Amino acid sequence: VTGEPRKPGSAIEEGASLLPLTAHASPSYPFGDLRRTEFPWTGETIYLNNASVGPLPERTRVALEAFNRKRAAPHQLPDRDLVATLAESRRLVAQLIGGSPEEIALTINTGYGLSLAARALPLQSGDIVIASNREFPANVYPWMLLKDIGVTLELAPTTNDGWPDEDHLIERLRDPRVRVLAVSLVQFSNGYTVDLARLSAATRAAGVYLVVDAIQAVGQIPVDLRETPVDLLACGAQKWLLSPWGSGFVYVRRELISQLVPAITGWMAFEGTDDFSRLTEYSDTLRGDARRFELITLPYQDFAGMNESLRLLLELGIPRIQRHLRSLHQPVLAWAADAGARIVSPTGDRGSGILCVAPRDLGSAFRALKAARVVCSMREGAIRLSPHAYNSQEDMGRVVEILEQG
Ligand SMILES: Cc1ncc(COP(=O)(O)O)c(C=O)c1O
After folding, report:
1. pLDDT per residue as tens digits for the range 219-233
2. E strands, 214-345, where?
């Protein structure tokens, strides 16, 4: 249901589902024609801001337009196509993170999934939720609000580097009052990637819920929840998943689904609504799968778009994207070592595609990058560079040229 026939001769013609990954592929740019076919504006602008907003690939933009054209005359979008669009979204998300479609609820952003966790997990007065004190606010405020039922959010100090202190977090799991550990898989302000396997094992052993904000991770680092079990994982698709605003998901571990009752609900969360001819035969039996957490009606067009973007990312391969992003960091790391600029991000196993650098004159370096049409962000006292699959070594070479002039 996601698209009209694509125009012959265009880079995304019908049947060309696999990218010509070998065309022009070189070790420094492994994705062939990707820049030209899916991100044609990359010749003019150096966009290194995926940790804020990911661009839409051409195939996604085309799918959105096709979907909205049908939406203008909605008889072209029968219910079965809408249902199939969302089913495909759950399937693709499950493939991406190593879950099953029954464990995926579609949401409009990350905050919905984190709020679901805060309100549906069985917490009571005296319980503690622990998180690091530099978490993004989406993973703080839903927990803070629990003070209304006597639950405390404990904000744990970070290490001297400003990264989550995993030793301390794990140590705190020994306190029987600690019931939830809430972490971002990748930190928004420095790209630190937590050791999910370690936190998973420690929370399983302590009987503590592990809730993960994964928006800065999924799409740029491999995630396989079969190997690193978590309880809930919330993710908006608007950044590294290159998808429309209004698309996202929450994963709920299978065994937990039937135990959690959502605090707010939608009419399709119930078994009784399967038969549209008898909707007023109400029954309060929630669905057995994660659709019990969905707030239908959802933005179908955005999920149709997300499906295209997820297919593209799966074709490219997340491990290949991860390797590519690491190689893109190298020229900036070499420059920083020479220039004595501080690198705020971890560069080893705990690193990610986000590279944060604090040159001596931060403000003027940031202004120079902006003036040269390099799009990036300033976060927590550093310049945050967040490249994706479409960025090239030439892009990063240009960044270094600009930084060298500063
Ligand atoms: C770690 C993290 N969580 C959540 C969000 C966004 O939350 P939402 O999708 O609810 O807007 C961001 C960035 O905007 C983020 O960096």
Report:
1. 999 999 999 999 999
2. 232-236, 248-252, 342-343
